[in-house]
Amino acid sequence: MNVRLDKKDLARYPFLKEAQGFVLSMDIPLDSLIRADTAAGQRIIHTGTDRLIRALSFGKGGGETDLDTPDDEILGYAMARLIVSCLGDRSMMDRLARYEAGRAVWFLETEEDDIRRYIAESLGLDPDADDMEVVRYIELASGLRDDRWRLINRDVRKGRVSVRTEELDALIHERIRGVIRGQLPLQVPGGICLKLREHIDRVSAVFQQQMLEEFGDIDESAFPPCMQALIAAITAGTNIPHTGRFALTAFLHTIGMETTRIVEVYTRAPDFDVSKTLYQVEHISGRGGTEYTPPGCATLRTYGLCVNRNADCETVQHPLTYYKRRKKREQGKKDN
Ligand code: SF4
Fold it and tell me: Model pTM greater than 0.70?
């Protein structure tokens, strides 16, 4: 399909190969892109940093884009990817990819038909098809929470899943998210990260604050029944299986509990060994480079760890959602 994209289009969809080609054609050495002592360098760094901060704050994206300065927007996207790669935090990369996908779909919703088609095709999706291969569908829909996306609720025939026209944007969103996330982290030379230190620290501080606001102080009374049962079992001196330790440790780490406090939880386990426990907790918490997230309810059920379910469990698919909702409710009661 022959479509001419202008600079504003590239600013709207900076993940396209044409946008990357445009950046290369500008022939700007990486070193001058990160120079905060020039007006242009400062602008790009700030555009990139602000973009990342919006991503961390679940900003909407499209409405915050300044299309009068498309060059800055395109380079700002590149800068955001540089900074997030220097940070090396998986959940930040996830958030950036989600933000960028949301931003692109926001623009797509009001786009001319030829551009919509072009973007879909560039992403390997057929905008006219009313079905797609099962493998492709699973790859795209696996990140969508609503039950209607589950394969069991879809019309599947001869290895193909039917897809309605109005569902295409959600799948495009997932495709963009996957493409952007798959490209991260970039291999950024250490010297570049060093020069961006101040801005990296700013983003990191916003992220920390956001995590604290999201989960706040730890409130054990809001723990879901499965996690309470695991803690009770450990406290009673019962040996719990590895899957249980993993789920509990990842849960406690994600809600912001410090490593030493997590280790403390295990001190009453019959086979407690401080250095072994510390190693395991640090490993699950990301010391080895991979930060693990706690499994969802479906996985916990298969492990036999979903116990003492209550009414609140009926509306969640993840123990973290249970915790967040319950904590919010408890907080609301205290405030009234
Ligand atoms: S439904 Fe989820 S949150 Fe509730 S007990 Fe089971 S695993 Fe835990």
Answer: no
